[in-house]
Automatic annotation (TrEMBL):
PROSITE patterns linked to this entry: NUDIX
Family per similarity comment: Belongs to the Nudix hydrolase family.
Name of this chain's protein: NUDIX domain-containing protein
Regions annotated as coiled coil: none
One Pfam family recorded for the sequence: NUDIX
Organism: Caldilineaceae bacterium SB0664_bin_27
SUPFAM superfamilies in alphabetical order: Nudix
Domain Nudix hydrolase: 79-209
C-alpha cells in the first residue's frame, strides 16, 4: 500500500495498517449512512467517518480539513474505483512513461475511466491527453489491485492494464505531466516510480517478450480465503 504522496508503505507497518483500517472504517461509515433511517444512526456513522479522516491524516500529507471535506462530500456506498493504465511500446521495444505533476513520480499513462466510456477507449484517451501520442491497443494485460501493489491512498482502486503500440506523435509535456519519455528496462527510473507501477511495468515487459501470457490478476490471499492452500501473488 502507499501514501497519498506516492511513498511505498511497507506491508504490515504501522502506517500501512492505519491507512487500511481508516479505509475500512470509511467504507463501513458510508454504508451505514446509506442505509441509516434515524438521526441517532446518522450521527453515529458521521462520527465514525470523522474518525476515519483523523486516522488518515496520520499518514496522509494533506491537512485534516481537506481530508474531511473529501470524505463528507462523497458519502456514497463505497466500492473500488476503476482506473486504466497503458503500457505503450515503440518499434524499438521501449515503454512510454510520464512524470506525474501531482507527486513527481514516474508512471504509465493512465487515469480514471469516464462515465459511458469503454475502458479500452479510456486507455487510448489517457495516453493522448498525457503525452500527445496516438496508440493502438494490442492486448489486455490484466487487473491490478492497488492495495496489493503499493498504491493505497484514499481510494481502493482496480487498475485495468492495456498494452499498446505507438502509432504517431512525439511525446511532449502536457498540463498533467512534468516530463515524458521512452525507456528500456535498463534505463528506466525504477527508484522514482509511483509505488503502484513497478509490478505493472515488469509484467508489461514480460508480456512484450511472451504475448501469449495469460492476463494478470491477484491471487486470493490465505487470510481472506482460508480454503485456499497458497498465499502467493503473481509478481
Amino acid at each position: 500500500m502507499g501514501a497519498n504522496d506516492g511513498r511505498v508503505l511497507e506491508e504490515g507497518s504501522a502506517e500501512e495498517t492505519i491507512l487500511r483500517v481508516a479505509g475500512k472504517l470509511r467504507a463501513l461509515s458510508n454504508s451505514g449512512l446509506y442505509f441509516a433511517d434515524n438521526p441517532y444512526q446518522i450521527e453515529t456513522f458521521e462520527q465514525m467517518l470523522a474518525l476515519s479522516a483523523e486516522l488518515t491524516e496520520l499518514v496522509d500529507a494533506r491537512p485534516l480539513a481537506e481530508i474531511q471535506r473529501q470524505f463528507f462530500d462523497d458519502t456514497r456506498y463505497v466500492s473500488p474505483y476503476v482506473v486504466v493504465d497503458t503500457a505503450a511500446f515503440d518499434d524499438a521495444g521501449r515503454i512510454l512513461l510520464i512524470q506525474r505533476k501531482d507527486n513527481g513520480r514516474w508512471a504509465l499513462p493512465g487515469g480514471w475511466c469516464e462515465v459511458n466510456e469503454l475502458p479500452a477507449d479510456g486507455a487510448v484517451r489517457e495516453v493522448w491527453e498525457e503525452t500527445a501520442c496516438r496508440v493502438a491497443l494490442s492486448g489486455f494485460l490484466g487487473i491490478f489491485d492497488n492495495n496489493y501493489h503499493g498504491g493505497g491512498g484514499l481510494h481502493h482502486l482496480y487498475c485495468l492494464l492495456f498494452a499498446a503500440r505507438h502509432v504517431e506523435g512525439t511525446p511532449i509535456v502536457t498540463r498533467e505531466t512534468l516530463d515524458v519519455g521512452w525507456f528500456t528496462p535498463q534505463n528506466l527510473p525504477w527508484d522514482a516510480l509511483h509505488a503502484a507501477h513497478p509490478a505493472r511495468i515488469r509484467f508489461a515487459f514480460e508480456w512484450q517478450q511472451e504475448p501469449s501470457r495469460h492476463p494478470f490478476y491477484d491471487l486470493p490471499r490465505g487470510h481472506l480465503h482460508p480454503t485456499w492452500q497458497h498465499n502467493t501473488r503473481q509478481e
